[in-house]
Design goal:
327 residues; alpha+beta; SH3 type barrels; single chain; Arc Repressor Mutant, subunit A; 12 strands; 5-stranded antiparallel β-sheet; 23% strand
Length: 327
């Protein structure tokens, strides 16, 4: 089976954004070669040529010869913009676009372990100044304790464990000792992923369900030695950065619903096909795989290994029955 990542077709919006950026960029670089321009936009020369042919039939209403964008690019492999019409200046962000970007950057800045935090804050300030954005009025992730985020951030940076009291979705309160791997956000909730000594496996914890947390030196345990290559230093740059870390680790084949396509963006995931979205996911234990599939609430479907499909279905029915009994 070929596990290579398949290229995703370019959307209309992506191409339109590039077409609008091409004319002012080329106008400021008269005589640039097709090869150099294609390299800058990370496209092939063939695609760039198609874009240029598209542009020369665009223009202002009336669409006469003097109202179309005029670009010469077929004589000597160099590009000359003769008449850019009204596209000489790069597009500016609207106030709404600037606010959206500023809000997204503020959310990223709050994630423990994120790199380049100072650079992100500088960019936020520049966006707010340029676009008149008011995203500072928006309160992000109010359900997450700032002190807890600071503790997790320090643990990620120092590569130490945390001891925490955690309340699960079923209100079960447990004491956990966790080696943090990373923090990520899904649907405005922050999650901590780490190696849990109590479970002797990787687990995911929602930050707003943490009741208390403190840093502790990581102990040396036999259970850790087996997975030590998964817990090296580096904060957010954890073991999941590359599939090369997994070696002969078994992999599961999973089909993903469109609404959960973010799962395919995880660094350790390999995309097998895009229609339907099917991915290959490495797993260290079958127990972890069952928990991971169930944690996504039916938005993914396990295809392989087939012997676990029945177990997941049974667990799901048991969970539903337990919820019904509580109601």
């Amino acid at each position: 089976m070929n596990l290579g990542v398949l290229a995703v077709a370019e959307t209309v919006n992506e191409r339109l954004a590039r077409l609008l950026a091409l004319v002012p960029w080329l106008s400021a670089r008269q005589g640039i070669t097709l090869t150099a321009a294609a390299r800058h936009f990370d496209i092939s020369v063939e695609q760039l040529t198609k874009d240029l042919w598209q542009l020369v039939v665009c223009g202002l209403p009336g669409y006469g010869p003097d109202q179309l964008v005029d670009i010469d690019f077929w004589d000597d492999d160099r590009i000359w913009v003769q008449d850019p019409q009204t596209l000489t200046t790069p597009l500016r962000l609207t106030a709404e676009e600037g606010a959206a970007l500023s809000i997204a950057l503020r959310l990223i800045s709050q994630i423990p372990g994120v790199e380049y935090r100072e650079d992100i804050d500088v960019l936020i300030a520049k966006l707010d100044e340029a676009c008149g954005a008011t995203s500072e009025l928006v309160q992000l992730t109010p359900q997450t304790n700032q002190a807890f985020r600071d503790t997790i951030n320090a643990a990620l940076e120092g590569n130490v464990q945390v001891a925490m009291t955690y309340s699960s979705g079923s209100d079960e309160v447990t004491e956990r000792r966790v080696s943090p791997i990373r923090v990520f956000v899904v649907d405005d909730y922050m999650y901590l992923e780490g190696y849990c000594e109590r479970a002797e496996a990787r687990r995911i914890f929602r930050l707003d369900r943490i009741l208390s947390i403190e840093m502790v030196p990581r102990s040396v345990a036999v259970s850790h030695q087996k997975h030590d290559h998964l817990l090296h230093a580096g904060g957010l740059e954890s073991w999941i950065v590359s599939n090369d870390n997994f070696g002969d680790t078994p992999r599961a084949l999973v089909q993903v619903d469109p609404g959960s396509s973010w799962v395919a963006e995880e660094p350790y995931v390999e995309v097998i096909s895009t229609k339907p979205l099917t991915i290959s996911v490495p797993y260290l234990t079958e127990d972890w795989l069952v928990r991971w599939v169930m944690s996504l609430g039916g938005s993914i479907q396990l295809l392989e290994p087939r012997h676990l499909i029945k177990e997941i279905a049974q667990n799901a029915r048991a969970s539903l029955a337990a919820l019904s009994a509580r109601d």
